[in-house]
Design a protein that fits this description.
By secondary structure, the protein is α+β, with helices and mostly antiparallel strands. 16% of the residues lie in helices and 35% in strands.
Length: 316
């Protein structure tokens, strides 16, 4: 969660955090936000390193035709969102440095959110009760997951917790949209007329460099969580789904190995259908998402800390 214009220094700071102590959020950082109706214990909120907006979320981003995006490699991962025939790709290589993109896709104001600490991807409709929110990065973490803030009310939101944790919408969730994760070459082939987020962001970053590479190769956490659930490995990739009081985790590896053709899991949550798909080439898709459900791709350690009553789906 540290950012700098010097990528080499950035990586050094990240590795120092991997090996060193972590910091609780201090009183000054609390003054930076609207913490009315706070839903979490402030003592469990940690400073990630940069200040508020030290990691700059993107707003009104630029896009390039997918066929002209020569800055991406075939193996680069991309979050794919499609609304009303408008298909856009958001490369992880850019999301690593910005973590949230405020965009409008197919006429719908969306935020594409990514937290590198837990490899968490979610896509939300930014509208709630007449407000259209714009999100920034607070510089704070809860259960090793980004806390966003909205620039209308200056309130905090938990990505993997799926809800506002302070302010006028505390305890409420935004509507979640289906998404896919795939390699860039797959995206380019399947969606030749699509557009992809441009590296022309207005910020100086080395988008060819992944500052989290060593973290992903290690089993260690950069920031602690309050609880470890030993049913799965800490960094096991899962798709987490919550609808109402039901939270359920689906191992990506189980979806890939599912007996249905092409790595497909069909399930029902509270009587509503859910369809997930994944393959060995790195494509992960939400095909059908129940009405009112929230969905995230993330590592198990953050999901299980934030959803303590979660079920783990077993492939039959």
């Amino acid at each position: 969660m540290i950012t700098t214009k010097n990528p080499a220094r950035y990586i050094g700071l990240v590795m120092a955090l991997l090996l060193g102590p972590t910091l609780s959020a201090n009183a000054q950082s609390r003054l930076d936000f609207n913490t009315d109706n706070l839903q979490i214990n402030w003592r469990d909120v940690r400073a990630g390193g940069p200040p508020k907006d030290g990691i700059p979320a993107l707003t009104r981003p630029a896009f390039d035709p997918v066929q002209a995006a020569g800055y991406l490699r075939d193996e680069d991962r991309v979050v794919v969102v499609e609304v009303e025939g408008d298909t856009r790709g958001y490369p992880f290589s850019i999301l690593n440095w910005h973590e949230a993109v405020n965009d409008v896709v197919g006429g719908v104001p969306l935020a594409v959110i990514y937290c590198p600490l837990c490899d968490s991807v979610s896509v939300v409709d930014r509208r709630i009760q007449g407000d259209t929110l714009e999100f920034g990065i607070s510089g704070l973490l809860y259960e090793s997951n980004v806390l966003l803030y909205d620039r209308t009310h200056n309130a905090l939101w938990s990505q993997v917790g799926f809800e506002a944790v302070s302010g006028p919408y505390a305890g409420q969730s935004l509507k979640h949209q289906p998404w896919s994760i795939m390699r860039f070459d797959t995206f380019r082939k399947q969606h030749p007329e699509a557009h992809v987020l441009s590296i022309d962001t207005g910020h100086q970053r080395n988008y060819a460099q992944n500052p989290y590479q060593h973290y992903f190769e290690s089993g260690r956490l950069m920031f602690p969580v309050s609880r470890r659930d030993r049913r799965l490995q800490n960094k096991e990739p899962i798709i987490g789904i919550r609808i109402g009081d039901t939270a359920r985790a689906y191992r990506v590896a189980d979806i890939i190995d599912a007996p249905a053709p092409g790595g497909r899991v069909e399930d029902a949550i509270q009587g509503q259908p859910l369809v997930l798909k994944a393959d060995q080439q790195g494509t992960i898709q939400i095909i059908t998402l129940p009405d009112g459900a929230q969905a995230v791709h993330t590592f198990w350690f953050t999901w299980s800390a934030l959803h303590r009553d979660t079920e783990v789906h077993l492939v039959k």
